[in-house]
Amino acid sequence: MNKFDVVILGAGPGGGALAYALKAQDLKVAVVEENLWGGTCPNRGCDPKKVLLAAVDARRHSQYLEGNGLKKAPEIDWPALIKFEKTFTDPVSEGTKTGLKNAGITVIDGSVKFVDKHTIFANDQKVTADKFVIATGARPGLLEVDGKHHFKTSTDFLQMTQMPKTVTFVGGGYIAFEFAAIASAAGAQVHIVHHNDRPLKAFPQADVQRLVHQLKEVGVQFHFGVDISRIEKNETGYELISAQGFSLQTDQVFCTAGRIPNDDTLALEKAGVKYSKKGIEVDDHLRTTAENIYALGDVVDKTQPKLTPVSGFEAHYLAELFGGHDKSIRYPAIPTVIYGDPRLAMVGVNADEAQKQTSIYKVSDMDITGWFTYRRLNEPLAHATVITSKKTGAVVGASLMSSEADDLINYFAMAINRQLTPESLKETIFAYPTAASDLTYFM
Predict the structure, then answer these.
(1) Cα–Cα nearest to 34, from 159, 151, 135, 157
(2) Does the pLDDT value for residue 121 go beyond 90?
(3) What element of type H or E holds 126?
(4) What's the rounded Cα separation, in Å, for the pair 6 and 119?
(5) pLDDT tens digit string along 277-324?
(6) How many Cα atoms occupy the beta-carbon half-sphere of 164 within 13 Å?
(7) Helix H or strand E encompassing 123
(8) Regarding beta strands 125-134 and 293-295, do their DSSP bridges make them parallel or antiparallel, or are they unpaired?
(9) DSSP one-letter string for 277-318
């Protein structure tokens, strides 16, 4: 039997970061992983997606500049691009596992089931610990429709060696918008099917409408208010059918209707841990309903975005908590990004909510397409909405849409978390001309 101070379930970015931090405190630590070491982000999520986007961005920017310095935009060689992507993903799992072992952290392969709040079985190996941390993440969900076994997932998309001629995404979340931009740039005819007329609900509606319009401009077809009830395989691919008479033929169909927490196979009830379809219940110390069991990352039921850096933030918090601090976790303003065409990024107060409280917030809605930063790239659309406090003048929220949005939103996150005012921003001299040097013009 193996006895540890802390056992971490899940070797993703959050679990791995916590393991190293606890080992530095001279604790006896083990990490259990049933799938790929390193977790979703570097193996089959944000990292490989960003590799694919490098080629997509190069093509799009070349298209913008055709006739303005460039003669012809390049075509994407999808098989070669996937081969390049694999140079990043293939080494991740073994490299992550080896790194943990070299640090003196025990690594255990296998699926986990709790026996009680101090004991698990990892396959047939009994492991006990003073504390457990559940960091098992989430997985793609599948809609309950007839023929749902025909659905492919985001994992499959990132491993496709050939791009189908026609690709359909069922569900209007951020993955659908990102993959639609990628597949369209790679030459596919792309469809997004969504059950209502309001995709990307967490983002301001006006921004979502702009993004939908831009994706339509590059050929993406949207089918709103359609509930798929059945998928049938036929000689030419798959037919998507709704009870209302909608029908769509496609070569490949992906379910992009969200992710579900990996909490349903752990026998959590035997440890007294409460959970639901939304994730594991935790308090403001990331403690579950079992006093010695904690949870972090995408497996947690929380209002904060389920993002890799949030998992890392929670890992840092738990390391301090286990080291003796007893403060409640406090999240900063967290930026989120849709890597669509163009990027859509948001942080802080939502523009839709700010518009309802005009006595508190000033909302500045700006078409910045003509600003030098974007005009030099000949971008078709660049837009910014900035929310400031009427009382202090400090920026409290922003949503950005442009090729620079994913980087620029980080400056806004820093401004919000540091409660910066336009006057304090003017105390910094930024390199010019850059997207950062535009900051003072936003407020």
Answers:
(1) 135
(2) yes
(3) strand 125-134
(4) 11
(5) 999 999 999 999 999 999 999 999 999 999 999 999 999 999 999 999
(6) 24
(7) none
(8) parallel
(9) TTEE---TTSB-SSTTEEE-GGGB--SS---HHHHHHHHHHH
Q: Buried (b) or exposed (e) across 395-416, using 16+ Cβ within 10 A?
A: bbbbbbbbbbbbbbbebbbebb
Neighbouring-strand partners of residue 384: 366, 400
Strands 29-33 and 2-9: parallel
Question: Distance between CA atoms of 81 and 403, rounded to whole angstroms?
Answer: 21
Token pair 């540091």 is found at: 418
pTM for the predicted model, two decimal places: 0.95
Place of tokens 């003669």: 71
Helices of type H across 65-195 = 78-89, 92-102, 154-157, 174-185
Number of C-beta neighbours around residue 348 at 10 A: 23
- Asked whether the predicted pLDDT for residue 1 surpasses 60, the reply is no
For 386, the token pair is: 């900035």
Secondary structure of residue 190 in the 3-state scheme: strand
Q: Considering only CA atoms, which of 4, 32, 12 is closest in space to residue 309?
A: 12
Whether the CB-CB separation of 41 and 308 falls below 8 Å is answered with yes
